[in-house]
User: What shape does this take?
Amino acid sequence: MSPTHTGALLWQRTPKIPTDLFSLTYGSLLTELLKDPTLTISQLHTHLHRMGHNIGLRCMDEVLAKSMVHKLDVPHCRTVIDTAECVAKIGFKFYLNITCEVSNITDKGFSLIFHDNPLSTYVELPRTEEGSDKDYSMLQYSRIYCGVIDGSMESVGWKVRSEFVRDILWGDEENEVRVDVFGREGVEIGEEYQDSD
Assistant: This one.
């Protein structure tokens, strides 16, 4: 079964919250963080990334558990391409009902491209006020996604770093998250569990 089909089936079989509630709740969280005069945009990005990372560490467990319950096939994440496909076709579909494409694949990373973003449905980036030291023009509003990607890939042994490179809120035509891959974690597997070639 293809990752796209697996993601769609998981989405159909899982209870959901309304997209509006999800996007408005996230917007409220960000609004409160932006009101903190001591928090810089860079610190906000770090904070959102850390929150997403903690979520991502648990996401892979849930995907695997739900796929076992529903007897769905989730491909092994042995290569960068396999892992990218799982994140894009299963993870984004399962959690957000987003159609996400993988592009710019190299052995050093890949890009995830998507048009729909439920987090930014009702969002317009604030203007930078005169005299303010906060420049909102490059605010990574959905930065939490980068943390989720990093955390979920870390949970299956990949060392990565994700970054928004294009965002519809910045005036781009689509959203693009670049995922740079730095290798695999040094996880030792017993001989009895290793694939025999």
User: Anything to note?
Assistant: The first strand starts at residue 101 and ends at 106. The chain has a mean pLDDT of 80. Residues 102 and 112 are 5 Å apart (CA to CA).
